[in-house]
UniProtKB/TrEMBL annotation:
Name of the molecule in the record: GH10 domain-containing protein
GO molecular function, one term: endo-1,4-beta-xylanase activity
GO terms for biological process, alphabetical: polysaccharide catabolic process
SUPFAM superfamilies referenced in this protein's UniProt entry, alphabetically: (Trans)glycosidases
UniProt keyword Lyase present: no
Length: 560
């Protein structure tokens, strides 16, 4: 029977996956953060500084005295360089300390001619071995700056220093190339007739039905009653965190009287609309954010109440969430540590893990990526605290993840610093999520948000992003995404643009004379319809594109 005369045709599909390769990224998040016997070579050959051969491990002259920020007593001047406004600069150096404590923080700062210091990053340096210091700066002016290393240590040694400039265009190009590598895969289609010959000119219609990258938005209690808000949210986002409704002060305002009515209704809405939920949060380490009746409990009573709280909320939503912020902001605050001891956070993570062993447990913190001036929750200190939690007895199998809030308030976000912090935390090999991203108001709010989201999405270690914004009708005033008519604000337009940009949408390709066609697709779920001009029939099939598979080949065959 000729193909053109066939009355019944079936399309069979075989999806072949091969390999589990690891991409080689230009991001340096694979660099070790361990203390080494000898420093590694300078990145970019030293860039504008070129210290790769010059120092050879020698100690540059340290200037002893109180630095301008009042936090350090040793300042080491590296070099004076000229910055160009709008350029981004990545900094790295190998450092060690001597003549003092066994370990101490070493920070890099850029000193302008007016004396202003811009902090660029820091690391924990030790005696007798070399630690990698990473950081960066976005130049807000054209002019000369002095690069300083600062520490409480008596002496700083430095080697293999690098300062590499990038224009904004170069930085964006780097992001785009990384997105193609880490968020997409090449998919090959091979279409044949029943006799195995190539189906030249077959039309393949491709529709992405679900994104493979969780890009979501915070949700609040207005979602329960506001139908316009519900429609606005469900049409855009497939992952969320509740802003306040799962927190202890919301579910147990009076001791012993739990009320999950609002949280349950929000969970039901999310489930009905295929929206995944990050639990936020079991505990908050800030005394101010405790239920009023919790704040002054004696230790034994606090432990009893906290245990009941953890068992209640984790058990209630077991199997319905994709993760939990077990302890919120335990680098900036220590309510539970002061009451229950230094291992309080570790203990609560252990309890949550054993209660729901399959759950991903986040440590959630702010200013790690968004504020280089805050020395409390730097990437190195975050890493140290999370490693402490994971080393706690019984936590060996815990599924940990890194939660970085991302509340950006500076007029111009330091994207170079943000990348260095993500690089450092990426060395842990754990999923990183940006969990509460918002940007302070001002004329550049929309532009700044886009820069931040692109940086997070393009970084290989980042596996999810949740923004904290929404319609003004739902009370979102800091970062409003829609007006009272649910029309997008300039910030909302950025979000909608990126949602559309970061998916394949509807695509179509035709096979060549070999019956072959290739296309680069974002990770996610797809529905494909194949047809041919010589055949009066078609068939739809489904397949997935995932980051775990190196090559994907879809075999399609027309059967008479």
């Amino acid at each position: 029977m000729k193909i053109a005369e066939a009355s019944v045709l079936l399309v069979t599909c075989i999806v072949l996956f091969s390999g589990h390769g690891v991409f080689s990224f230009s991001y340096d998040y694979s660099a070790t953060m361990e203390c080494l016997a000898a420093p590694k070579r300078a990145q970019y050959g030293g860039g504008m500084i070129g210290f790769n051969q010059r120092t050879n491990g020698s100690t540059l002259s340290s200037e002893l005295g109180v630095s301008n920020d009042g936090l350090h007593n040793t300042t080491l001047s590296l070099k004076t360089v000229k910055l160009e406004k709008g350029n981004l600069y990545t900094f790295s150096a190998w450092v060690q300390i001597s003549n003092g404590s066994e370990s101490e923080t070493v920070a890099v700062a850029f000193k302008a001619s007016n004396g202003e210091l811009v902090h660029g990053g820091e690391t924990m340096a030790k005696q007798g071995c070399w630690s990698l210091l990473k950081g960066g700066i976005v130049a807000e002016f054209t002019g000369v700056v002095e690069i300083l290393l600062m520490s409480k240590a008596m002496e700083i040694r430095v080697d293999n220093v690098s300062l590499q400039p990038f224009t904004a265009k170069e930085w964006r190009s780097h992001q785009d190339k990384s997105i193609d590598k880490v968020r997409k895969k090449k998919v090959s289609f091979k279409v044949t007739y029943a006799n195995g010959t190539a189906a030249d000119g077959a039309l393949i219609l491709i529709l992405q039905t679900k994104s493979g990258f969780p890009f979501g938005c915070g949700m609040n209690h207005y979602i329960v009653t506001d139908e316009a808000y519900r429609q606005w949210f469900a049409s855009r986002f497939k992952v969320t965190s509740f802003t306040n409704e799962m927190k202890w002060y919301s579910t147990e305002k009076t001791r012993g009287v739990e009320n999950y009515t609002v949280a349950d209704a929000m969970v039901n809405f999310a489930e009905q609309n295929g929206i995944s939920i990050r639990g936020h949060n079991v505990f908050w380490d800030n005394r101010v954010m405790q239920p009023k009746w919790v704040k002054d409990l004696p230790p034994a009573e606090l432990m009893k109440a906290a245990t009941r709280r953890l068992n209640s909320v984790v058990s209630r939503y077991a199997g319905r969430l994709i993760g939990w912020d077990v302890m919120n902001e335990n680098l900036h605050f220590r309510f539970f540590e002061d009451k229950l001891g230094e291992n309080a956070s570790s203990m609560f993570y252990s309890m949550a893990y054993h209660l729901d062993p399959s759950m991903t447990l986040f440590m959630n913190e702010y200013n790690t990526i968004e504020n280089s001036k805050d020395h409390t929750a730097t990437a190195c200190k975050y890493k140290e605290e999370l490693e402490k939690i994971l080393s706690f007895p019984g936590n060996a199998g815990l599924k940990a993840a890194i939660g970085l809030e991302g509340h950006f308030r500076d007029p111009k976000p330091n994207i170079a610093f943000m990348r260095s912090a993500l690089d450092i935390l990426g060395t842990m090999g754990l999923p990183i999520w940006l969990t509460e991203v918002d940007v302070g108001g001002g004329p550049d709010q929309a532009h700044n948000l886009e820069d931040i989201l692109r940086e997070g999405y393009s970084h290989p270690a980042v596996e999810g992003i949740i923004i904290f914004g929404g319609p003004i009708a739902a009370g979102f005033k800091c970062m409003t995404l829609a007006n009272y008519d649910f029309e997008p604000t300039p910030v909302g337009e950025v979000v909608d643009k990126l949602i559309n940009e970061w998916k394949s949408g509807r695509r179509q390709v035709r096979t060549d004379s070999r019956g072959m066609s290739e296309i680069l697709l974002f990770h996610g779920d797809y529905r494909v319809k194949v047809s041919h001009r010589l055949i009066n029939s078609s068939k739809s099939i489904n397949f997935k594109v995932t980051k775990e598979t190196e090559n994907i080949t879809v075999l399609l065959q027309f059967d008479a």
